[in-house]
Amino acid sequence: MSLLKLENLSVTFGNFRAVDQISYSVNEGEVLGIVGESGSGKSVSSLSLMGLIDYPGKVSADELTFMDQDLLSMPEAQRRKITGSDIAMIFQDPMTSLNPCFTVGYQIIEALKTHQGGTKKELKKRAIELLTLVGIPAPETRLSAYPHQLSGGMSQRVMIAIAIACNPKLLIADEPTTALDVTIQAQIIDLLIDLQEQKQMGLVLITHDLALVAEVAHRVIVMYAGQIVESGPASEVFSAPQHPYTQALLASLPESAAGKARLEALPGVVPGQYDRPKGCLLSPRCPYATDHCRNVEPASQGPLERQVKCHTPLNAQGRPAA
Amino acid sequence: MVSFIGRRLCQALFVLLIISVVSFVIQDNLGDPVRQMVGQSVSLQERAALQQELGLNDPLLQQYGRFLMGALQGDLGMSYYYKQPTLDVIVSRLPATLELSFCALLLVIILATPLGVIAAIHPKSLLSRAVLFISTLGLSIPIFIVAVFLMYFFAIEWRVLPSFGRGETTSFLGLWQTGLFNKDGLRHLLLPSFSLAFVLTPIFIRLIRAEMQDVLQSDFIRYAWSKGISAPRIYFLHALKNTMLPVITVGGIQAGTLVAYTILTESIFQWPGMGLLFMEAVTRVDVPLISAYLMVVGVIFVVTNTLVDVVYSMVNPRVRIPGYSA
Ligand SMILES: Nc1ncnc2c1ncn2[C@@H]1O[C@H](COP(=O)(O)OP(=O)(O)O)[C@@H](O)[C@H]1O
Ligand code: SF4
Ligand SMILES: [Mg+2]
């Protein structure tokens, strides 16, 4: 069953479309990978799912439903109840995401109290269980620790504990390991995937790390400049990319796996608010760009489960189809 | 933590030393103890002898040493006018000033916190625009105009509040004459503390608003929203607690300047505190009293600032000794 469904979701800041008409769905127990360079709109689109786009940002969509409930039209109070319980999110920088003024225990218990309630004793017991679950040693003593007393990896574990506190059906992880030591990254991902399988959560995993997505994601979405340029089963997208952008991402794999935001294979950067080109947004950087590309925006084509937004999708040999 | 407090205390001592030099220089250059002791009719020779006897011809450093030793023992010289030790005179006026400053500060906190927070949360709303406009206005209106204005309406026009003095006071534990525990004393406190609060409230509103706006941009606030926590909790707990850390430091220093403003407020409302005493000392050229006032105010200033730092270190978990290693 589809947990989350979005159809032509856009997020605009003034005239600027940070997220431009994206559509996808996440099923129960499914891992959806989202990849793309910095500035592609990965974070903004996931924040919009949580209802966290601040004024003057505007979110619009033909459909944005979670378990068949319309997130955009439901009363604010009802949406706030879903936020942080049924849909939870973990952020890129665990060290700055936890509130420096409150203890770890306080911040876990606060999440439990907000959505579930319980006596002081029960809440504390549950908090200790959660810390144990995410692999934090000596959880009783950690409860009274302040965030600055934890390492990055530990903080991320705490954030994961808070995220799963209310048994979410959907977990959004926005580059959960980018800010961490390379040695810790694999541990955190293992933990996330373990929990996802145990609890059969839907997981949206946003990352620079294509190797990781290839390994753990069922389906993958490639974003560029606020748009989805390619989507499909992870194995297919990575073995036979159809979009020049995906091909370039894969070509620079060792670098991008190490968290580099720039692509060696494609000079230039993702267009921002003031330099959005006409026609295909990739055309200034695309090695296959033609005059047609520079004037006419391509439409998404292909079957629903394997889409590509290019005039001349690449064939199995990695060449543009004539 | 202990070393932190130790460091702060050393700094405080150093500042006090500088203040003592300033006080000494004032007394040394402007004061003439001989004049205080003898009349006009005494001959020059006799004056010179007396000067020698009092040690006024000793090297400056030696004189300063004596001054400092005296100060350490609570001897800041005799007031020309009161013919009493200056410290005793000042201490007898201390409760009035401290009570006034305390009430003013309380008012500032009560007024500025909610207004600053609201101005930060809804910067575009009519209310925050009004708050900001009034606080800008408040910053540019001299305190004596506010005081006279308040006095005119509340004391003269409407006759609801007394216009001068401390009113009735009661003894608190035998060491403090307080106006806080009776109605008349409290009524007398209202106008002076309101006008004193008027100086600092706009500064605090702006300070809280600016800090709060910064804090609201931070990752942990966005994260708090993502946890589904209620808006009031986010604003008044998560954000305000982080806002208050810098506000305590800057605010503490500002609060020290209250002492300076008490001089004006007390003069206008004839509030029998240290500020009024200082103004009187200036008109009477009571140099030892002026110099002692500077010393005492300096001590108060240094003590408040040190206290503020210590309180800050206790409120901010990041300054504490880590009890856990990660
Ligand atoms: N609050 C905002 N106001 C204006 N532009 C924004 C805002 N937040 C993000 N953007 C812009 O939206 C684009 C997408 O950003 P983001 O989603 O953070 O990218 P990613 O997470 O893929 O690196 C960027 O060009 C960024 O500058
Ligand atoms: S449409 Fe043209 S410019 Fe755009 S990705 Fe395809 S080939 Fe490149
Ligand atoms: Mg991002």
TrEMBL record, chain A:
Domain of life (superkingdom): Bacteria
One of the GO biological process terms: transmembrane transport
Enzyme Commission code: 7.4.2.9
UniProt membrane topology term: Peripheral membrane protein
Gene Ontology terms for molecular function: ATP binding; ATP hydrolysis activity
GO cellular component: plasma membrane
Reaction(s) the record says it catalyses: a dipeptide(out) + ATP + H2O = a dipeptide(in) + ADP + phosphate + H(+)
Ranges in a coiled coil: none
Main location: membrane
Signal peptide: none
Pfam families (UniProt xref): ABC_tran, oligo_HPY
Residues covered by the ABC transporter domain: 4-250
Keyword Transferase: no
This protein's UniProt keywords: ATP-binding, Cell membrane, Membrane, Nucleotide-binding, Transport
Localization terms from the record: Cell inner membrane
Assigned protein family: Belongs to the ABC transporter superfamily.
NCBIfam families linked: oligo_HPY, PRK11022.1
Protein name: ABC-type dipeptide transporter
TrEMBL record, chain B:
Keywords attached to this entry: Cell membrane, Membrane, Transmembrane, Transmembrane helix, Transport
Subcellular location as annotated: Cell membrane
Matches recorded under SUPFAM superfamilies: MetI-like (SSF161098)
Domain of life: Bacteria
Residue ranges of domain ABC transmembrane type-1 in the record: 94-312
Pfam families on file: BPD_transp_1, BPD_transp_1_N
Cytoplasm in keyword set: no
Keyword Methyltransferase in record: no
Similarity annotation: Belongs to the binding-protein-dependent transport system permease family.
Identification of the protein by name: Peptide/nickel transport system permease protein
